[in-house]
């Protein structure tokens, strides 16, 4: 089971290199959780696959270890190992950005350039539509899945299936349903950590 994360567009300021951008996120990550559950503040995961497109490495004076990397993929990989030590991380880099020409919806901030990079203030003259954006997407196996799967288990457990006779018309028996529900609870425990256990106790107390 994995949770989906993404940054659309990737928050790269205009004129900044990838190491410059990533160095600004040492205490956090530049992407947001897409799966339906509450984000955790703990920077921890078991395994992840990350794809970055539309960002190239720029040669600059190396003020940090990230600037010493030879390629964009090496920069991203070193960043992932720094933020998520011990996790199995794979990364892929595509130079071509994500095209956003019509009919792609133009819901972007006026601070974006036509190439999707952030600038300090919007241009004084009316600019044309954003033509492309850099994007980062990640599939991550992490403790947040314990919260997501436990929430799903509790929601399904509350269902009164007797009120919907057609619920089992497809051939699923009540016993099979209960067994699958228990397997879901067991699956959620596979992603439980000490931090998650403490949080679950707090939620139980609040209930």
UniProtKB/TrEMBL annotation:
InterPro entries membership: DML1/Misato
Gene Ontology CC, one term: mitochondrion
Lineage top rank: taxon: Eukaryota
GO BP term, example: mitochondrion organization
Protein name: MSTO1 protein
Species of the source: Nyctibius bracteatus
Gene designation per UniProt: Msto1_0
């Amino acid at each position: 089971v994995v949770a989906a994360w993404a940054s659309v567009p990737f928050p790269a300021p205009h004129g900044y290199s990838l190491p410059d951008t990533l160095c600004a996120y040492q205490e956090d990550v530049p992407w947001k959780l897409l799966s339906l559950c509450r984000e955790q503040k703990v920077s921890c995961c078991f395994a992840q696959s990350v794809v970055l497109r539309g960002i190239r490495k720029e040669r600059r004076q190396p003020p940090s270890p990230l600037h010493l990397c030879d390629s964009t993929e090496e920069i991203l990989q070193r960043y992932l190992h720094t933020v998520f030590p011990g996790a199995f991380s794979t990364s892929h880099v595509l130079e071509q950005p994500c095209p956003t020409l019509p009919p792609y919806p133009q819901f972007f901030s006026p601070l974006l350039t036509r190439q999707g990079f952030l600038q300090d203030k919007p241009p004084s003259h009316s600019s044309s539509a954003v033509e492309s954006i850099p994007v980062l997407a990640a599939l991550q196996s992490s403790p947040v899945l314990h919260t997501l799967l436990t929430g799903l288990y509790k929601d399904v457990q509350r269902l009164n299936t007797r009120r919907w006779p057609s619920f089992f018309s497809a051939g699923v028996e009540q016993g099979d349903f209960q067994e699958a529900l228990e397997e879901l609870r067991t699956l959620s425990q596979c992603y439980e950590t000490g931090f998650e256990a403490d949080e679950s106790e707090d939620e139980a107390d609040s209930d």
